[in-house]
């Protein structure tokens, strides 16, 4: 066991070779199969603390896919298919996250999975995957800026969405000025808000189901019998996986942030273990309660996609309970979730991947 660090160091040293000139010109640097082409004296700043990594892991992927997209999945597959589909995707994601965490602890380098593919599979494969990942985030960024602007229509639909797109873009630009510390602090605060909202909805959902709020009385498993636990057969069940895969997007950012963690050997294992609790508690429990208090044949769920918060099953459940203030509060949470998970993660994921390439 004592010889392992020396072996790793030998591999690092043997992988390095002088940088070659490209058609863009020459520059001083080194070529490392672990870190790619690195400019001389330009390492990433390790400013992410343990608390940042914990919140990125727990609340990093709690976004519109849960708060809004789950409504479309509920109508497509029914409450049982909703829970089972998210659970299956969540289990696969948990295994993937654990594997990524092992690599991130051993090799906490810039580029994470892009770098690992270059080193352990093939550089050409890593090149294709790296650009695919970066372009995917860059493509999603303008979409999410528009989606965040749509959530504002819940309060004001008389203003042009372009105004809010510009406002959110300026906010993101200001966050990027502060580097990874700004990203970590923003995610820390916004994740706390999202976690509090999920916990509050679980409590409220239990109260609604037991008849403590609203005029529907005790619901129990009523909506699991009528209209039923499953909808649209196997096609409906399979359709849930598409929404679930979208909802869990962004979890891999924990591995991408390893290169900027102050203590990756301690922070990464702790953060990766939090993924289980996020899947089990914030997703599965919320979706199970959601299926108990919102019928899958509700026509208002037809528009549950993107950021149409008026069709969010969470907002509908609160409105049906006759609570006047909470729908606006939950709409604010959805706005925060879109900005946090999607827009802020877009800039972090794409820039770090391109920097590694």
UniProtKB/TrEMBL annotation:
**Which Pfam family would be a valid example here?**
AA_permease
Localisation? Membrane
Alphabetically sorted, this entry's keywords are: Amino-acid transport, Membrane, Transmembrane, Transmembrane helix, Transport
Q: Where are the transmembrane segments?
A: 55-74, 80-101, 134-155, 161-180, 192-214, 234-254, 275-294
One GO MF annotation is: amino acid transmembrane transporter activity
Q: By its UniProt entry, which InterPro entries does this protein fall under?
A: AA-permease/SLC12A_dom, Amino_acid_permease_CS, APC_YAT
Where mainly found? membrane
Q: How does it sit in the membrane?
A: Multi-pass membrane protein
Report one GO cellular component: membrane
Record flagged with keyword Hydrolase: no
- Stretches the record annotates as Disordered: 1-36
Ranges where the Amino acid permease/ SLC12A domain occurs: 52-357
List where Basic and acidic residues composition bias occurs: 25-34
| Name used for this protein in its record | Amino-acid permease inda1
**Which species does the entry assign this protein to?**
Colletotrichum higginsianum (strain IMI 349063) (Crucifer anthracnose fungus)
